[in-house]
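Translate structure to sequence.
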């Protein structure tokens, strides 16, 4: 049996959310109705596998439904995997540890990752290359200068997520 990348598109109040799973592990998630757009961002080895749409991914899809219903910690329980250097992995782990309902600055994120000498720019790059939104909650990172900063899926999506988590 050939391994596949399984995809499901879920409706959310802020637009469609595509989830991609490989062998039961979430490898991509993003606010788009096109799973192919998420698939194109995966590492080469995963892009060599067939992409197929399925009616229900199980645990990751249920976690999204639970999150939208108010269980703000449901996404934390989903197993996921994304590529990156050891430094990037530390930043992504620190990002995943930012609790719902709170925000941090890019500099604070670097500090929480144990990388205080890392410029906020490296933390920003980790967010920009994050493949698994909102499970790795880059929407919870705000610039220390104020405002919302950037978000791969647009500021309105970031604002909605923060409002949903009551971090605004």
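Result:
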């Amino acid at each position: 049996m050939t391994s596949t990348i399984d995809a499901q598109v879920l409706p959310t109040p802020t637009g469609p959310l595509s989830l991609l799973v490989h062998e039961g592990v979430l490898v991509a998630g993003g606010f788009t109705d096109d799973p192919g757009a998420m698939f194109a961002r995966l590492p080469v080895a995963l892009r060599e596998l067939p992409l197929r749409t399925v009616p229900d991914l199980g645990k990751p899809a249920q976690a999204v439904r639970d999150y939208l219903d108010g269980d703000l910690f449901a996404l934390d329980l989903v197993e996921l995997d994304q590529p990156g250097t050891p430094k990037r992995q530390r930043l992504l782990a620190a990002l995943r540890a930012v609790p719902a309902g709170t925000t941090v600055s890019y500099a604070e994120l670097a500090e929480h990752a144990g990388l205080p000498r890392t410029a906020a720019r490296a933390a920003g790059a980790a967010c920009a290359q994050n493949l698994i939104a909102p499970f790795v909650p880059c929407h919870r990172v705000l610039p220390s200068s104020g405002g919302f900063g950037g978000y791969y899926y647009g500021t309105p999506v970031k604002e909605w997520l923060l409002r949903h988590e009551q971090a605004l």
